[in-house]
Amino acid sequence: MASVTAGTTAPGPSRARRWLAGFREKEARTAYLFIVPWIFGFLVLTLGPMIYSAYYSFTNYGVSQIAGIDPVKTVGLKNYRQLFHDHYIGLALKNTFEYGLMMVPARIIVALLLAMMLMKIGERAGGFFRTIFYIPHITPPVAIGVLVLTLFNGGYGIVNKALAHIGITGPYWTITPGWIKPTLAIMDVWACGGTMVILLAALYGVPRHLYEAASMDGASKVRQFFNVTLPMISPALFFCFIILTLAALNQFTVAYTSFFGTQTGGNGPDAALFYAIYLFEQAFKFFNMGFASAMAWLLFAISMVVTGINIFVTKRFVFYQGAERS
Amino acid sequence: MEGRKKRLAILLVVAAAFAAVIAGTAGARVDATSANTLDIYGFGPGDDVQENRADYAAKQLSGVTIKREPASFDDQAFLTRLASGQVPDLVRMGRPSLALYAAKGVLQPVDQCVASVKSQYRKGAMRAMTYGGHIYGLPEFTNQVTMIVNTQAFKEAGVPLKNAQMKNLSLLKKTAKKLTTFDSSGNLTRIGFDPKIDSGFGFPLWVKYFGGNIISNNGLKAQINTKAAVKALSYTTSIINAEGGWNKFVAFRNTFDFFGKQNPLVKDQLGMWPMESFIYNVFANNSPNQGIAARYFTNQKGGPISFFSGNGWAIPKGSSDFNDACAYMKAVTSVAAWEFAGAKRFAARRAANPPQAFTGLYTANTVADKKLYEDVYHKTGGSADYDNAVKYLVNASKYGFELPPTPAGAQFATAYNNAVQRVLTGQQSIKAALAQAQKEAQAAIDANK
């Protein structure tokens, strides 16, 4: 009886050897040449600082170490332990999560509604409104930060004046602690043009015949939306969800300009203290670089965990054409 | 063969360009560190007063090339220079930052070098330049705080100007209420009295009013949670509440064009408030005919007090030219430098069309202040209002104090400013906010001393 034993077939070239062999091809060399600048940038400007930051998070790196006056000393897990003792960490995380919970769904819903609206109107009008809706997206965040204070001024801002016309007394958006995060979320929704364009592209990609088939089966418009549109654009929705969640975790510029700029002498309200702002303060205002590095790694870990949960929870709702539903 | 030659030529061109860049960089480095160059950081191009003083100081150092990096002081940029070994010979920075750098060993003591001139400088400002018993530099401006009174508002409200006082707190509150006006929607149209408790100087100044100090003389003990601090926050909050409450108050204040032609004097938006001295020049430019009066910020007994702020000069450890650095620092803050710059500004304002008032330079050099006032601007060239205001400004300098330097640096101010914010927005009681600030400030001091 014949038996198959190990070693009866000659082993192929190793993976590394196959990879190296690829360099003999001119096309492969050209391709690598094209990506060398990116790889260089990634190694020097991203990975390098990340490794340094990981190292500093275990040290007392501060003013005298930067200046070369005192040597850098390792402090073990002290900076990480301090994360649990500094109550502003909890406050900043709470603010950041609350803001994310408001901003991410609101922005996706509004962007989707706008994209669907643009699908309905003609090509010419669609192009015009697409540009109009996209303009806020390219407005510099610093300008948006200044706009927040002007538009949402509780006594004299346009928003409250408009609300007053319909009999609503608007709140003091930028002063009352409970209204600060919703105000920033509203401004983010206003600048949802980027999300809208992604979803619009996804909507254009939904095959028309699916709607026709659904219609022939008697599906209502609402049913078509939930059973055809949403599944078909779910990869784009998922992408937006992940990207916006990460953006929420890193909220900095608009909040900093509005509440920690020159108008407030750099002392913003607790309600606007987002994690990235507190990290910036620790690093570049107080020069506690070791602690700030530990904060950065905590944010990185949180981002990974949140993204992981998102992937785990949402993968069963995401439908990729040509791939089996997982 | 042809291709090989081409590759070789390209290689040679790249190598030559690389060599040129390296050579250029090396040359620049030699220039920057040459023995006769004084490298100054934080004193980039400024207004006429700054440039004239810089010219004067440069002339006092014969044979020395002055290199001024075209930037204002920035902590990150300064630290980057230190980290890369490009230590400036001399640096100008905000006085609150100085103690942090002194405590961390970044700056050099200058006791001996300034011994002959230190008596000229205001004690309050010199205190901010002193840490651990050593002097670490020389102060520049003082920017003392006085009360600014909108005389038009007083007239309109039928309040006599003598009520612009601070001795009697209940009268002050009554005056504030009388000066405060609202529109039909209940929005403020004029704030009677802004106590400025949320500004950089407000909390320390009001605590001083009630007889306290928010930090010990040696800068190592936070004294934020004291009876005086509680009184300061209670009173100022009550004033703001009497004027419509914090929400209305700050929403209205955020609409002000403080430094423009439509400033709160022109638009009659503020009755009275404490502020730094530089604002008089701004108002003299933008609204020269608007009624204005100066009054002292006083203590409970009616005695004048003022708060100083400004920059200071210091020499980093690793400066390659200590002697020239110290000579420049003394020259640029000397009586002669201030007089030179002051006289030029006064002449420029007189020559402007229409002529502008010059409401003075308020320096940390007492001798310079006296001479400037006597020789240059005892008549401002503006209205009688400004001539009178200047008399208060000149005298207010005598009563100024500055926070002792603390190694906690910005963390100290952040702690008490956050507490003020929490109280004003109603998030915390005064006692709880101050207790938290005390804990945070002391922890920051302990971590950095």
Describe the structure.
- The complex is a heterodimer of chains A (326) and B (449).
- Chain A has helices at residues 15-21, 26-56, 63-66, 78-85, 87-120, 123-138, 141-151, 158-165, 177-190, 193-204, 208-216, 221-249, 253-259, 275-285, 289-314.
- Chain A is an all-alpha fold and 326 residues long.
- Chain A is flat.
- Mean pLDDT of chain A is 90; it is low at 1-7.
- Chain B has 18 helices and 15 strands.
- Chain B has helices at residues 2-32, 48-60, 75-83, 95-103, 111-114, 123-128, 151-157, 169-179, 202-209, 227-242, 246-253, 278-286, 322-332, 335-351, 366-377, 384-396, 410-424, 430-448; strands at residues 37-41, 65-68, 90-94, 130-131, 134-135, 137-139, 145-149, 181-182, 188-193, 270-276, 293-295, 297-298, 304-307, 311-314, 400-401.
- In chain B, helix 9 packs across helix 10 and helix 14 runs parallel beside helix 15.
- The longest helix of chain B has 31 residues, at 2-32.
- Chain B is globular.
Structural features:
heterodimer, A: 326 residues, mainly alpha, MetI-like fold, 2 domains, 70% helix, 0% strand, flat, disordered N terminus, B: 449 residues, alpha/beta, 5-stranded mixed sheet, 18 helices, 12% strand
